[in-house]
């Protein structure tokens, strides 16, 4: 992967989300600011799109990213916000929350995808498949994925019927079957069609 071509003299944050397509749990975003040295270090370490990494490698890289980043922050939007706003707007809200927590404030945000964040006062640039072209965005995808997976794993203990430890809230056959059998919880997204089967437990 080669870092997306941007001015290197300014503070640039990579921003990505995870959990947009899940049936259960919040949508989570991360924003990561990297120095030129840390970009080179993370490239050598194997940072790339989180979906192409094993859980163990993601965890190791997330630890390294957080240790050497200028700053790294998480933002999320709750299930209630997803149902109220819709998943796209909730995703953009989660990204904005991650960005505004950064210290120092970045001078440019590289946003994975093709949707700009509304009312963000910091300059931003969208990049389709940015997690494959920008180390900063890839780093954000890893940090967000590890953080959300750990959250869902904790929630799995409360809701063992849904196989959440394995599916991380996504709509696997086993998860969908459990919804048919047990109904939904307050962490299921009621605005998603397959969750509209019964009242929350």
Could you characterize the architecture of this molecule?
The chain is α/β, with parallel strands linked by helices. The chain has a single domain (10-193), classed as Nucleotidyltransferase, domain 5 (2-Layer Sandwich). The chain is built from 7 helices and 5 strands; from the N terminus they run E-E-H-H-E-H-H-E-E-H-H-H. Strands 3-2-1-4-5 form a 5-stranded mixed sheet, with helices on both faces. A hairpin with an 8-residue loop joins strand 1 (12-18) and strand 2. The mean pLDDT is 94.
Mean pLDDT: 94
CATH topology: Nucleotidyltransferase, domain 5
Radius of gyration: 17 Å
The major beta sheet can be summarized as:
5 strands, mixed
Distance between the termini: 45 Å
Oligomeric state of the chains present here: single chain
- Estimate what percentage of residues fall within beta strands: 5-15%
Low-confidence stretches: none
What is the CATH H-level superfamily? Ribonuclease H-like superfamily/Ribonuclease H
CATH class: Alpha Beta
CATH architecture: 2-Layer Sandwich
What is the 3D form? globular
Number of domain modules: 1
> Using DSSP, what is the number of strands?
5
Class by alpha and beta content = alpha/beta
Question: Percent helix among the residues?
Answer: 40-55%
Number of helices: 7
Family: Belongs to the RNase HII family.
Subcellular location: Cytoplasm
Binding site for a divalent metal cation: 16-17, 112
Function: Endonuclease that specifically degrades the RNA of RNA-DNA hybrids.
């Amino acid at each position: 992967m080669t870092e997306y071509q941007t001015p290197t003299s300014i503070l640039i944050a990579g921003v990505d989300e995870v959990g947009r397509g899940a049936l259960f749990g919040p949508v989570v975003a991360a924003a990561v600011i990297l120095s030129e040295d840390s970009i080179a270090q993370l490239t050598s370490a194997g940072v790339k799109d989180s979906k192409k990494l094993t859980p163990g490698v993601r965890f190791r890289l997330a630890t390294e990213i957080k240790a050497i980043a200028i700053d790294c922050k998480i933002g999320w939007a709750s299930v209630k916000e997803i149902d109220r706003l819709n998943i796209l707007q909730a995703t953009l809200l989660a990204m904005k929350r991650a960005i505004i927590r950064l210290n120092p404030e970045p001078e440019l945000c590289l946003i994975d995808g093709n949707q700009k964040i509304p009312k963000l006062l910091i300059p931003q640039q969208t990049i389709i498949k940015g997690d494959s072209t920008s180390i900063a965005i890839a780093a954000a995808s890893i940090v967000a994925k590890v953080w959300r997976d750990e959250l869902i794993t904790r929630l799995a203990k409360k809701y063992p019927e849904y196989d959440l430890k394995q599916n991380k809230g996504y709509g696997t056959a086993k998860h969908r079957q459990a919804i048919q059998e047990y109904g939904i919880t307050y962490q299921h997204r009621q605005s998603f069609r397959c969750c509209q089967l019964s009242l929350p437990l």
